[in-house]
Amino acid sequence: MNSKKKKRTIEWLLKKYLSFFEKFGMTKENIVNHYEEWRLNRADIIEDYLWYIFNFLLNENAKQSKDISSFYKRNYEIYMQMLYLRRKIEGKPANEIQRALNYNRLGLNIETTPYEFDVIVIATSDCKACKNIDGKIFTVEKALEDKIIPYNHCERKQGCACTYGFRLRRGGENDRLIRK
Length: 180
Prior knowledge:
Elements: H1 10-22, H2 28-38, H3 46-64, H4 68-89, H5 95-112, E1 117-122, E2 137-139, H6 140-144, E3 163-168, E4 170-171, E5 176-177
Antiparallel strand pairs: 1-2, 1-3, 4-5
Helix pairs in contact: 1-2, 3-4, 4-5
């Protein structure tokens, strides 16, 4: 049995990711031409080029975003693609990407939700490190400290999949939602 994995090519990248990259204004010609230049001084590993593009998109999004909500929404799309690549294609844990994704979702909710809210941890059942935090409620301020989820102690093969849920705050005599 051959244990070598098949080498991926630029054609694979285009087939799998071109429609995603087109959302960000990238064209097939642009990607292929830049790849030819990029690989001159590097190992010809298409996954490395894909990581380069994802990081380029994150950087450009930060520079070109005109409002914070759009910034977070586009980052979310990029992080989801990165998470998929790391876990499903490379078969590696993606704790640092999950952390960035959670932090990004929190930022998006802060910007787009007109009400005060708390953060609820939604943990997986197959990791002892997060067993005690599943369903726990924290303030937004505590979540922003980024110390709630023990990403680096995750026991899952594909890495941490814990995420945040959000619960709107209620108060007053009529138990109404509290506006920011």
